[in-house]
Amino acid sequence: MKRRTMLLLAMLATGLVAAGGYGLYRIGMSRGMSMAAPAPAGVVGTDRSTGKKVLYWHDPMVPGQKFDKPGKSPFMDMPLVPVYAGDAGDEGKVSISSRVQQNLGIRTADVSKGPLSAPVEAVGSVAYNERDVALVQARSNGYVERLHVRAPLERVRKGQPLAELYVPEWMAAQEEYLSIKRMPNAGGVLLDAARQRMRLVGMTDDQIRLVESTGKAHSRLTISAPIGGVIAELGAREGMTVTTGASLFRINGLGTVWVNAEVPENLAAMVGPGSTVTARTPAWPGTVFKGKVSAILPEVNASTRTLKARVELANLSGQLVPGMFASISFSAAPGKDVLSVPSEAVIQTGTRSVVMVVQGEGKFLPVDVETGTEANGRSEIRKGLEAGQKVVVSGQFLIDSEASLKGTSTRMSALPAADEGKAPEGPVHRGEGRVEKIDRDEITLSHGPIATLQWGAMTMAFKLPAGALPANIAVGGTVAFRFRQTTDGAYQISVIAPTGAVSKNAMPAMPIKSDRPGSAQ
Fold it and tell me: 349 with 412: CB under 8 angstroms?
């Protein structure tokens, strides 16, 4: 029994201590909110010990709350810290001594203006030049009596015999021409008519000259390759019958070849028809092939987000054959002068591009920039900087941490300028209370406990919603509201409605987030 009594007394004492701590927290928060003054518009005093002009006082652990006079922090058991005019807390700037800069390893670079271009690299595969193609067809009905080329992909030279055909119509036309030529009084008109008939049955000029020079009819006539290249298609076989228009051979030239290079979509503007290129292939290490872009195909590959650049390369020695892998380097044309900084100076936060600008006298300021192309380790700056400024290229995050410790309002993680005034996407808290006062920018509420923040009942001011305050909100009325903490440490209403008018449409159900283990959701 005695042991149980001692255990109950210990539990009661622990509860009193916790209640006392929570009560002190409530008192501190309430007192802090009531003591916090609007941000002073100018100098509010002078520090006697240093002689510097004071802009305001604040608690470094709660930098969003500013006070117009010194004293003890209502949030922590420590004195308020003065923020001097022209010091690190001067609206977004952070000041770091030269010694600390050296310890942090801070390096800077100039914002320069000049052309920003670099070769565009791409890869592709070699293919036939489809503009260098010859198709050999049967011009009359006949028979294939002999083939000189018997397999596809055989190389042929211009004028090389391909096949021998027997065409009955050709024999009749030759005999008629020779008969007219033997006539003693044959005129030129008759001979021209006979030659024209041989052309009409499909004989070439070379075949006609052969008949004229030999003076006899040829039962078999040889078909020769019109260009040099490779037999891409073979449609003839010995002994087969051919009809007029039948495809016998398809020859692809190899004097020039195409490389279909895959150019990334974001670099397409840097490549155009006529651009000179150099190509290399693992099959011929050390050999450089030169050519130019003949066309940019009007289609983007949906899976790789690349365009095809059709590159035409000279291939006089025939070293390049279809299917080979090739690396292509496009020579970029000289561009106009643009502002640029080292790429390492630009910090991508996910929604913004930020650089740290050197302000002089050890001060730094985060600046939002709009970036463009990137080449040779430098990034184009389209908006936000001017030529001659200096930016930090090493140690940006350490400067940002220093800004956090000194309570600087503008940091790399802050909202962009376009989002100023909007509540950040942070934890949402809910409460109910009575409207005590409505000002131009704030509304003062006497609200009950806020469990997600471990707040007790208090009266404090909130920033008005990003839009307009509903017209049915008046002093003395009871309201239900939701709010978030902004980047400057203040709290802003996101949704507010009279208690009697709250509905699912007015305030949709939202989960309550809490950092306390085991708290109700």
Answer: yes
In this structure, are residues 167 and 221 in contact, taking their beta carbons and an 8 Å threshold? yes
Spatial distance between the Cα atoms of 61 and 120, rounded to a whole number of angstroms: 50
Structural element, H or E, at residue 293: strand 289-300
DSSP conformation letters of 475-498: TT-EEEEEEEE-TTS-EEEEEEEE
- Does pLDDT of 18 surpass 50? no
CA nearest 232: which of 171, 173, 174, 152? 152
Residues paired with 326 in a beta bridge: 124
Cβ atoms within 10 A of the Cβ of 309, count? Answer: 26
Output the CA torsion 199→205→210→213 (10° steps).
Answer: 100
Q: At what angle do helices 168-182 and 188-200 cross, to 10 degrees?
A: 170
Amino acid at the residue 6: M
Token pair 């009325």: residue: 477
CA–CA separation, 490 and 38 (whole Å): 11
Residue 37's Cα: distance from chain center in Å? 45
- Please check whether residue 133 is in contact with residue 441, taking contact to mean a CB–CB distance below 8 angstroms: no
Contacts of 458 (CB under 8 A, 6+ apart): 26, 29, 30, 33, 446, 447
Q: Which residues pair with 75 in a beta bridge?
A: none
CA distance to 146, 175, 243, 253, per residue, from 237 (Å): 8, 28, 13, 22
Rg (CA), the chain: 43
Given the structure tokens 């009084």, which residue do they identify?
185
Edge-to-edge strand order for the sheet containing 247-252? 133-137, 247-252, 229-234, 155-156
With beta carbons less than 8 A apart as the criterion, state whether 463 and 493 touch.
yes
Q: What is the pLDDT of residues 291-311, one digit of tens each?
A: 999 999 998 988 889 999 999
The two tokens of residue 128 are 């036939």
In angstroms, the CA 104 to CA 312 distance is: 53
- Using 50, 70 and 90 to split pLDDT, how confident is the model at 98? confident
CA pair distance 195, 201, nearest whole angstrom: 10
CA distances from 469 to 184, 418, 450, 472, 509 (A): 117, 21, 22, 9, 20
pTM (2 decimals)? 0.48
- Cα separations in angstroms, 238 against 21, 99, 156, 163, 234: 105, 92, 19, 9, 12
Which parts of 42-187 fold into alpha helices (H)?
98-104, 168-182
Quick one: how far is CA 322 from the chain centroid?
33
Query: Residues 113-152: pLDDT tens digits?
Result: 888 776 788 999 999 999 999 999 888 888 998 999 999 9
Residue 201 φ then ψ, to 5° = -85, 0
